[in-house]
Design brief:
The complex is a heterodimer of chains A (about 500) and B (about 70).
Chain A lengths: L1 H19 L7 H6 L6 H12 L2 H14 L2 H32 L4 H8 L3 H33 L6 H49 L3 H11 L12 H7 L10 H8 L8 H24 L15 H9 L2 H39 L6 H25 L7 H11 L1 H9 L5 H22 L14 H19 L5 H7 L5
Chain B lengths: L1 H14 L11 E2 L2 E2 H23 L3 H7 L1
Antiparallel strand pairs in B: 1-2
Helix pairs in contact in B: 1-2
Classes of the chains: A mainly alpha (about 500), B mainly alpha (about 70).
Chain lengths: ~500, ~70
């Protein structure tokens, strides 16, 4: 039954991807950014679905099982504030600039903004390097989930292969429009199924009050932040959602908006979407102590699946599996499309064709790169160790620490290419330093103070950007005029 | 109005750090108060974002992009 539900769900996903192709206009701009025609609801679902991974459903409940309610403040409510603010202040500006100049990638934007090919290339390398672990986590997580949900009947390599094949099919066929449409379906699926799972399991546990009473008696520490999460950790963790400002896949979705007003719904509704997904995940993770009080370490990540195994039917298990697949694929599709777009636009078109490449050539290259990126990711997932899940926060740290560069590019006319170069290189150097020092240390913080590395790298990036920009020649007036049209 | 809303955004950022509820395990609206507070925080964020898009929308960017 579980596998049947999953098969029906995947068939539905492919159908939506195929239907979206009916609107395909055959141009590069249509394949890569849907001719900037996406409306408010699809944009909301795309942006939210792209940002939510399997971690939001399974990882969050596992983390809540370990440390309690603090997970919500750490990862959900901070994102509910910071991410819409990033959309409001940065996303709208990048959309306007992208539309005015016809940009499709971040490297194109930064290359033109700072009149530097080298800067575009450096950023391309850094963004690809930071995205790879993120992709890998999606494929690996999807495979492991399928194994757990089917009680080991389906090996993880099969789950990873299925996810990869389905994503390749609708991304190469439908481009960004197909991806956005499918993301809308997938986001609605995992939001709905999360809520259904919550209501069903809480009912089986005798109601929310009774279940929380039980956990409070056994583990009162899970009902407070207490010593499980320090205030300084909460404060520095609020910088992590700023990574949204530098994610290539979010940049790509921003550019797909029909009008700037299209951003209004995503900005306002994003916090509500966070509540819908994260409250059930976190609460169920805590309630897992009713039946599974002794789960430790990585086993805690599977608490939700164990609860469904115990309390629910195969049908609900299949639906949850579909929800997790939806969360995984709605991130993976946008990421691989963004990578394909970057390789096509920033490398092939820019360096081999001097920015003059036919639409047909661009679409073909884009599709081949999507296939290549997914293939490489899948092969890596076969040899990768599950400890790579710890890389997620490091990946986010890198993107968040680059945020000052995009803020300077859209707000600060006086910022210079050397300032941007210096900031990016500072991020790379410090990121490597902290990564080498701490990637094997669970809950790593700078010098054991509770301060996350992102806070130090972020501040250093800001400082270097400002100092070097002020110490170097200002950008020429023509460039400033192109990017700040209203500037006097 | 725009400046006031930006200040409100800064205040909301500070309010995210609810130190006064750190060790409070009581329940409000059926959930531990530390969780309820952050759910309400999300709703407050939603409200502030609605005010931002209504009263501080950067419409000049839209005109520039045409």
């Amino acid at each position: 039954m579980t596998l049947l539900v999953l098969a029906i769900y995947l068939a539905g996903v492919l159908t939506v991807g195929v239907l979206s192709h009916r609107l395909f206009r055959g141009t590069g701009e249509d394949y890569f950014v849907a001719t900037r025609s996406i409306g408010p609801f699809v944009l909301l679902m795309s942006l939210f679905g792209t940002n939510m991974t399997a971690f939001s459903i399974l990882g969050a409940s596992g983390e809540a099982h370990r440390v309690g309610i603090g997970v919500f403040s750490l990862m959900a409510s901070s994102s509910a504030l910071m991410i819409p603010a990033v959309f409001f202040f940065v996303g709208t500006r990048l959309w306007a600039t992208g539309k005015r100049h016809g940009f499709l990638t971040q490297a194109q934007f930064f290359r033109e903004r700072y009149q530097s090919d080298g800067l575009g290339l450096l950023l391309f390398v850094v963004l690809v390097a930071l995205t790879i672990p993120y992709l890998l986590i999606g494929v690996l997580g999807g495979g492991l989930t399928l194994t757990q949900i089917t009680g080991g009947q389906v090996p993880s390599w099969v789950g990873g292969l299925v996810i990869s094949a389905v994503v390749v099919a609708y991304v190469t066929y439908g481009g960004l429009r197909g991806t956005a449409w499918v993301n809308t379906l997938q986001t609605l699926v995992f939001m709905t199924l999360g809520a259904v799972t919550f209501v069903f399991i809480v009912g089986k546990l005798g109601g929310l009050g009774a279940a929380l009473d039980h956990v409070t008696d056994a583990r009162p520490d899970l009902m407070v932040r207490g010593d499980n999460i320090s205030p300084i950790k909460l404060l520095s963790y609020t910088l992590i959602p700023l990574s949204a400002g530098m994610f290539p896949h979010l940049f790509m979705h921003w550019l797909s908006a029909r009008r700037m007003e299209t951003f209004r719904l995503p900005i306002v509704a994003y916090p509500i979407c966070m509540i819908i997904v994260w409250v059930p995940s976190v609460t169920l993770g805590i309630l897992g102590h009713v039946d599974f009080p002794d789960l430790q370490g990585p086993a805690a990540s599977g608490v939700l699946i164990r609860m469904i195994d115990l309390h629910a039917s195969d049908l609900l298990a299949g639906l949850l599996g579909a929800g997790v697949f939806a969360a995984v694929m709605s991130s993976l599709d946008s990421q691989v499309l963004a990578m394909g777009t970057m390789f096509t636009q920033d490398i092939v078109k820019h360096y081999s064709f001097h920015d003059k490449m036919s639409d047909r050539g661009q679409i073909l290259a884009g599709r081949l790169f999507v296939i290549g990126v997914v293939l490489v990711t899948y092969l890596l997932s076969l040899v990768a160790n599950t400890s790579i899940f710890g890389l997620a926060v490091w990946s986010f740290t890198g993107f968040a620490a680059l945020f000052p560069v995009v803020v300077a590019a859209v707000f600060w006319k006086r910022s210079t290419r050397y300032g941007a170069f210096a900031a990016i290189l500072t991020v790379v150097a410090l990121w490597i330093w902290f990564f080498v020092d701490g990637w094997k240390v669970p809950g790593y913080s700078v010098g054991g103070t509770g301060v996350l590395p992102v806070a130090v790298i972020f501040l250093a990036s800001c400082a270097v950007l400002v100092v070097v920009s002020l110490a170097t020649r200002p950008p020429d007036e023509e460039t400033v005029g192109r990017f700040f049209p209203g500037a006097g | 109005m725009r400046v006031l809303l930006y200040i409100a955004l800064g205040v909301l950022y500070l309010l995210h750090n609810d130190l006064w509820l750190w060790h409070d395990g009581s329940r409000v609206l059926g959930l531990p108060v530390g969780l309820t507070y952050h759910v309400l925080f999300c709703l407050a964020t939603c409200l502030l974002m609605a005010l931002l898009v209504k009263y501080a929308w950067p419409s000049e960017l839209s005109a520039d992009s045409e």
